[in-house]
Amino acid sequence: MQIRNRHGELIDHAIHLPNSGENADKLIILAHGLTGDKDRELMVYLAESLCNAGLAVLSISFSGCGKSQGEFTAATISKESDDLLAVLDQVKGTKKIAYVGYSMGGAVGALTVAKDDRINVMVSLAGMVRTKTFAETEFAGVTPDAGFMWEDESTPLSQIFMDDLCQIESVVPAVKEIRVPWLLVHGSEDDVVLPDDSLHLHNNLKGKKKHIIIDGTDHSFDDHWDALASHIEDWVNTHL
User: Fold this and answer.
1) Mean pLDDT across the chain, nearest whole number?
2) Among 20-24, 38-42, 79-83, 102-106, which stretch is predicted with the lowest mean pLDDT?
3) pLDDT by residue (tens digit) across 65-95?
């Protein structure tokens, strides 16, 4: 299967199929966060764990990230939402779809579910909500198109990326009427996307929802990946 976005860029992906065909009509789309890709250790762990639990997983790298085509400097939330729409077009025969988005991938999913009803269940892991605040906090003092994200020369900070974050400002207005079952998980010590982001989104959702804080862990959920996978599995099996 080839997946191309509307710009013609190939979206790198991996398909994880369980041995049992019991959940053949269900699919989890798993998406990474800012500066990540499908091959990051957390993404691989979650994909394999959920597959071992009997769930099919499609893990993707957004355009400009990992082995996907495109430029990293063009990888905005809005563009990645278009990437996700292209992925949904390719899996259109699947009856039930859950989207699991980590960090900025959570914001991508929020904007996408607001305009596309093919996503039946949502999971946000340390999901970004207040995008403008994130931009102003994390990259204060960095000059777009000249500086880098967290001083990493492999991840240049672009003006279009910053403009997109500030224009969106918050995903809450887009999803406050959405009634898709939504799980929000955050680490209590997250200092990249603050735990209050998940709480704020949870408080503004109207459908079935659950907010979980994992004590003692940070943005990467270090040492708590098994619990993370278990929370996702339970939510998906209950609501998909």
Assistant:
1) 96
2) 20-24
3) 999 999 999 999 999 999 999 999 999 778 8
Going from N- to C-terminal start, the domains of the chain cover 13-239
The closest of 177, 178, 182, 141 to 162, measured between CA atoms, is 141
- Angle CA 55–200–148, to nearest 5: 80
- Please choose, from the candidates 85, 126, 101, 109, the residue with its C-alpha nearest in 3D space to the C-alpha of residue 212: 126
Quote the Cα angle for 34-88-6, to 5°: 75
CA distance 120 to 175: 14
Higher pLDDT, 94 or 18: 18
The CATH number of the domain covering residues in 13-239:
3.40.50.1820
Full DSSP string of the chain: ---B-TTS-B--EEEE--S--TTTTEEEEEE--TT--TTSHHHHHHHHHHHHTT--EEEE--TTSTTSSS-GGG--HHHHHHHHHHHHHHTTT-SEEEEEEETHHHHHHHHHHTT-TT--EEEEES----HHHHHHHHTTTPPTTTSBGGG-TTSBPPHHHHHHHHHH--SHHHHTT--S-EEEEEETT-SSS-HHHHHHHHHH--SSEEEEEETT--TT-TT-HHHHHHHHHHHHHHH-
Sheet strands side by side (includes 209-214): 13-16, 57-60, 26-31, 96-102, 121-125, 182-187, 209-214
CB 229 within 8 A of CB 50: yes
